[in-house]
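COMPLEX REQUEST
Ligand: beta-D-fucofuranose
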Amino acid sequence: MFKKRAGALLAAALLVSVTSACGDDSGDAGGSGDDQITIGFAQVGAESGWRTANTKSIQESAKEAGVELKFSDAQGKQENQIKAIRSFITQRVDVIAFSPVVESGWDTVLKEAQDAEIPVILTDRAIDSTDETLYESFIGSDFVLEGKKAGEWLVDEYQDQSDPVNIVELQGTPGAAPANDRKAGFAEVIAAEPKFKVIASQTGQFTRTDGKQVMETFLKSHDDIDVLYAHNDDMGLGAIEAIEAAGLTPGKDIEIITVDAVKDGMTALSEGKINFIVECSPLLGPQLMDLAKKVAAGESVEKRVLTEETTFTPEQAKEALPERKY
Ligand code: GYE
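STATUS: Structure written out below.
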């Protein structure tokens, strides 16, 4: 695979040294011209602030690592991701990486990559295949744990209350790992106390627009909502607009828990409009570049690379915001 690509590699190596001579400070430029690789990356889309930060992280770290990146945006559609993966196979990239829109339905195309001897790395989201040989590594968060952290905050927040706590839930994209797992982790924790009742749960597609619309319908059919649990900041931010438009105060009349901790979410948290955020880091680029280089060189890598994450209260958000990278 490397020999066939020698011409392209040389050209790319030259490009790196030319750009570095022009003052580009990409750290790797002086080094390993001969291990330069091409990654085909099939992204989900641009549905949220998280996704935008994730795309930026991947593009910037590819540049810094001297990796040639072929980037495709699937606009939220699995069929587009499958097409992109097939095109990466035809182009004979060294490594294919992608963040699966949904969990199921990947075996056929990943078998094609395997037959073509192109290693695959999953980033951010898992697939539900039982054949673990279809990918080398999966780098990303533990979404079940994120859901549990959200539930634990709620249990603690309402520890002195015995009346029912009415919860509405805005789910992520149907079938996506973070939607399935954040729902499951949360449900598991709150199930321990029957006072917690999820009175409505619907998808808001991880977007602000849908988060706002669905929250409007929740507010029309329920006048007794205590808590909103949104699977990401963007849906929570959309819902805040709906809550304010209905004459209610977000963070007070309805307490809000979200996941991600992107800047806009953290700002709303610091203003008391959101009450608690579970962090999910989109900065997966540098680790992906490391993994991809190792995999391309035939080295063995960890099958599961977990992202380290924390949680934020309004006070912690105020402290963290000035240094926040996304
Ligand atoms: O939480 C959400 C995004 O897969 C972790 O996708 C990611 C999720 C993230 O659209 O905002």
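REMARKS: Residues 1-33 have pLDDT under 50 and may be disordered. The first strand starts at residue 38 and ends at 43.
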